[in-house]
Design brief:
- It is a single chain.
- The chain is built from four helices and two strands.
- By secondary structure, the protein is mostly helical.
- The protein has a two-stranded antiparallel sheet.
- Strand 1 and strand 2 form a beta hairpin.
- The longest helix has 43 residues.
- It is elongated.
Length: 160
């Protein structure tokens, strides 16, 4: 067995302890965690934006699917009639989206994809146009009646 030297018996001078040692490398202060938190927050915000952008694209792709199916159904008579009637069925669908609350926290939720919005808007526009046309025709008829009434009154007054 090796004998341990008796180094503990050597005295350390107080003078060497009191003199400052020469420092060649500075100690790097600890970096606050705030920079990492900001970086993680920016990543979170970027990810929410990415999810919402993908949801927007997916919603558009779903509407395009419906448009293609409708076109196939109406413009291609060679497609089998049985297939054409059931070419695509539609149920309520949604895409994920992320919303931010007033306290800046996030909520992962669903946004409904309105598959029949275009048809409703077209129907509403057609209804409005029909109403405008009816009013215009009624106004024109009213003017004709006034002119006709004046002519009749004028002819009656000349005939007397």
């Amino acid at each position: 067995m090796k004998k341990i030297q008796d180094n503990y018996k050597n005295l350390i001078s107080l003078k060497s302890l009191l003199q400052p040692a020469t420092v060649t490398n500075a100690i790097v202060p600890l970096q606050p965690q705030q920079e990492k938190v900001i970086s993680d927050w920016e990543r979170l915000v970027a990810q929410t934006e990415r999810i919402n952008q993908m949801a927007k694209e997916l919603g558009g792709a779903i509407l395009e699917l419906k448009t293609i199916a409708s076109t196939l159904k109406t413009q291609h008579p060679l497609v089998k009639e049985e297939l054409c009637n059931n070419i695509c069925q539609y149920f309520v669908v949604g895409v994920p989206c992320v919303k931010q609350k007033p306290d800046e926290s996030f909520i992962l939720t669903m946004r409904k994809v309105d598959l029949f919005r275009a048809e409703r808007e077209a129907g509403l526009l057609a209804h409005q146009l029909r109403q405008q046309t009816k009013k215009r025709l009624a106004s024109q008829q009213h003017r004709k009646n006034k002119v006709g009434l004046r002519l009749t009154q004028s002819a009656d007054s000349k005939g007397r």
